[in-house]
Amino acid sequence: MNFFEFVQDRWSLLWFQGYQHLSLVVQSLVIATLIAVVVAVLTYRSPLWSGLAEAGAAVGLTIPSFALFGLLIAFITSGVVLSVVALAFYGALPIVRNAVVGLRGVDPGLVESARGMGMNRFAILTRLQLPMAWPIILTGVRVSAQMLMGIAAIAAYASGPGLGSFIFSGLSRIGGANATNSAWAGILGVVVLAIVLDLVLNAVGRLTTSRGIRA
Amino acid sequence: MSDSTTLDMEAGEKDAPAVREGDPQPGRLRWVVQPALALLAIAACFAYTNTRELTSKQSLLQNDAMLSGGFRHLWLTAVAALLVIAISVPLGVALTRGPLRRHAGVILAFAGFGQAAPAVGLVVLAALYFGVGIWPFIGALTLYGILPVVANVVAGLNGVDQRLVEAGRGMGMSAFAVLRKVELPIAVPVMLTGVRTALVLMCGTAAFGGFVGAGGLGALINTGIKLGEQPLLLVGAVLIASLALLLDWIARVVEVVATPKGL
Q1: How many domains does chain B divide into?
Q2: Is residue B50 part of a domain?
Q3: The complex's ipTM?
């Protein structure tokens, strides 16, 4: 069976696992973005706390994903919950830094004039600072998305969902029929999904960037 | 000289969102806290395994098993890192001159999408095509680490002030001498940032060695999952993460030491 026959033969399974993979990454990415923005909003005004948050994020990124999965397996039995926790953790790290940089980059003069117009802190944050910082935050989200796509492939080893199952079934059948096809299908599926998600996020960026700062 | 420094930093910062890396200049605290934390975690692992009765399923937690796994892990990472540097620097140089220069952006963008391929997939493919064992695995590690380094070699070389290159040429230096004595030294900090990123990536990827018979600390996690042994999972994960943190720290120290004095 050549690769194309294999893909045709397993199309429904491939489609299903691909959907699961994408859905896992997107949901984790939403949680990660929320966490990262909250952390950035709470810390960006203090150099000490935002420094700690950024250093923590940098250290977190050096933790190998396979090690984190291994660690979490010891505590969480559900493969799905475990995968979401691990992916949300990794996903938040690149976004934190960009969110801090973005919030800091808002012109203090604008904040001052918003206050002068009688806006309270919450209004300034939601109607001025976050929309201004959004393009930079979104850049972090896109970096995260690419990274999570690859990490999500490991989820299958911890009985989570996604295209990783094709890769691991190739591994467990080394030398057997279709082992190579299966691994290729999983890898190429992940790459295609990564490209699609990047294009979608790019479009989301265009649609959600405030009109005043749209390039 | 100060001009070239700012250019260099711009090159580094422009790439920052694309490259997986932390703050370029960590706080003074981190120089001490990071290695201390890692060494403490490793010590805690050994203390933990030596103070409890090991069952027959936990033979991987014996001191010599953990030490040999750790050294194998480091060895795999180090060999792959040397290969990555040996391949990436000439490749990066080639991409910044001659006919390839114009296409460097496109080539790197395509390579970027290739990087989205999951590391574990590369490891499995290498084993499928070239068999299980150490060298196919090192090949996969190397392939995975090349892009971050090549991207930074290109960024570093492109960040070199062209006036310095012309000054070198004007002094009668050959193109190769300018590359060796001016461009490469100035690009060293940016290049080393890429090497550090690759080191950390590969130390994490080396954890997949247990899948394909290449050894390393990943075997602890694999066995832990198979046998449902939490101590194996915990110790394996903590040791791998600690090694990654130590390597990151060592690479940062090398960055500081290897940066030419003029910069």
Answers
A1: 1
A2: yes
A3: 0.85
